[in-house]
């Protein structure tokens, strides 16, 4: 496999590990970017971007990064907190009065950000087209009754997070959450990352498809079993209500909407650049970064049915949990996206890491491909 781009010779082992991913005939396209202490030491890509396998992955190829998007929304919230426009411990109803319905008046912004609010899914099934109707989704969530009571643990909100957090941003900023993320983060830093992609950029987007035959680890199999056997389970509904969630990735409507839980489009360079800017203080003052990255939720996740550990809108390292460690320092924080893409920072080693891929793996938290690269990186430092 022809590897394009740049790597510092000290990190040749990481480049070789990246090349080895393509020994799997199902692998399609991928990119990796690593910055150490603000310096780019790896920026490489390989493979194909289109469905037919005829178009090479280029330097400017972008791809849907799924939940890698969530920290961008969380940082936008934290900036608004720093400006005094939001309060993490104020009830959500202060900014969104309709949210008080069905006993939700005590839920705070902090609860939303660390997945404790009990709203990872909607009980009543919505039509497929509701996915693209911002008002329909936020109205449904405002009326929704939580699946559990405050204080009874946490459950990851794979997609509702985007409407919940995004609506608070929209109410305070008076613009779509994707526009706020662009104005506050992507444009100032020059990141090729978009929550709400312009049609003029569609030609650069890699086609996403699922790998076949790999059943994943025990956590993936546990979740799959529930989704196949219990249509009304909270875990199932969180990924399938509206029913179009899992099947929309390559659709123009999905690319266009501003859904800051799951539809960010970018590349490895944009993820590494984002985390580097968190490490060097350009996005948040240290006190706000500390709040973002300190442990808020830990333990058995009611949605994912595996152990998770969250800060505010970011997933924290669990060194002792095989499917939940970034493979670097214990203080690492970031977020994996469905199927294998990931962005994270390791403050201990001053590492900012971005890996993106368009052949989706079946894993619930960390994809072994990303972990393998991170472990190689740690060995090279």
From TrEMBL:
Segments forming domain Beta-lactamase-related: 18-374
Entry protein name: CubicO group peptidase, beta-lactamase class C family
Organism per entry: Pseudomonas segetis
Family annotation (Pfam families): Beta-lactamase
Gene3D superfamilies from the UniProt entry: DD-peptidase/beta-lactamase superfamily
């Amino acid at each position: 496999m022809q590897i394009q781009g740049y790597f510092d010779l000290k990190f040749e082992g990481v480049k070789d590990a990246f090349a080895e991913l393509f020994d799997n005939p199902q692998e399609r396209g991928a990119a990796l970017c690593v910055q150490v202490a603000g310096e780019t030491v790896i920026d490489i890509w390989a493979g194909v971007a289109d469905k037919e396998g005829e178009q090479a992955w280029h330097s400017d190829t972008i791809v849907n990064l799924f939940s890698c998007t969530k920290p961008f929304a969380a940082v936008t919230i934290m900036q608004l907190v720093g400006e005094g426009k939001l309060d993490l411990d104020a009830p959500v109803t202060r900014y969104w009065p309709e949210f008080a319905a069905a006993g939700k008046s005590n839920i705070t912004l902090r609860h939303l950000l660390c997945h404790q609010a009990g709203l990872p899914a909607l009980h009543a099934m919505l039509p497929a087209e509701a996915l693209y109707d911002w008002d329909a989704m936020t109205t449904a969530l405002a009326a929704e009754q939580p699946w559990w009571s405050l204080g009874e643990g946490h459950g990851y909100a794979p997609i509702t997070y985007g409407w919940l957090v995004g609506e608070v941003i929209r109410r305070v900023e008076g613009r779509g959450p994707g526009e706020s993320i662009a104005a506050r983060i992507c444009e100032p830093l020059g990141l090729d990352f978009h929550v709400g992609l312009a049609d003029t950029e569609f030609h650069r987007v890699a086609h996403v498809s699922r790998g076949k035959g790999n059943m994943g680890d025990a956590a993936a199999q546990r979740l799959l079993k529930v989704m196949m056997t219990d249509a009304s389970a909270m875990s199932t509904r969180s990924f399938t209500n509206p029913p179009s969630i899992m099947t929309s990735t390559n659709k123009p409507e999905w690319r266009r909407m501003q859904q800051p839980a799951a539809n960010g489009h970018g590349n490895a360079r944009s993820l590494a650049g984002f985390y580097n800017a968190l490490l060097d203080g350009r996005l948040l003052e240290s006190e706000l970064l500390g709040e973002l990255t300190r442990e808020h939720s830990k333990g058995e996740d009611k949605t994912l049915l595996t152990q998770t550990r969250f800060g505010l809108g970011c997933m924290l390292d669990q060194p002792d949990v095989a499917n939940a460690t970034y493979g670097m320092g214990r203080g690492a924080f970031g977020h994996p996206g469905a199927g294998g893409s990931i962005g994270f920072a390791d403050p201990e080693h001053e590492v900012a890491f971005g890996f993106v891929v368009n052949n989706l793996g079946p894993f619930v938290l960390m994809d072994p491909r990303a972990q393998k690269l991170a472990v190689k990186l740690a060995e090279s430092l």
